[in-house]
Amino acid sequence: MRATRGGLILLGTVGMAYGAWLLVSRQDLGQIVEVVLWLAAAVVIHDGILAPMVLGLGWVGGRLLPRAVARGAVTVLVLLGPAALIAIPVLDRFGAKPDNPTLLDRDYTQGLLVFATLCVCAGVAVALGELRSRQPARTNVEEE
Question: Does 15 map to a domain?
């Protein structure tokens, strides 16, 4: 396990270094500043809005819903929340240009609905697993 973790850390570090080199070597200063601002905004949005909202909703759900249902609901929230935030620009078709029909050329709403369905299935699986783990184990011992 230690070697696998080390290999993944090395691979990730090499990938980030390559991406940083491409950014610095192929973009002008204005584009680099835009990337830095975008990354800073992503951190602020995640740590300042999304994470506290998920924690708060998870806490409220844990108080109001049965435990198994609450765990499934939090699973759906953690999976679907960030995806929905990321999907806002394409759902509203920001950046679409009439002279370039290849931009935003898909039905992104349908894709988000498919992903939402998969997230709900994952939440149901978590809830069922929680319920199953609470049931006493069945034994095949015959009564004498």
Answer: no
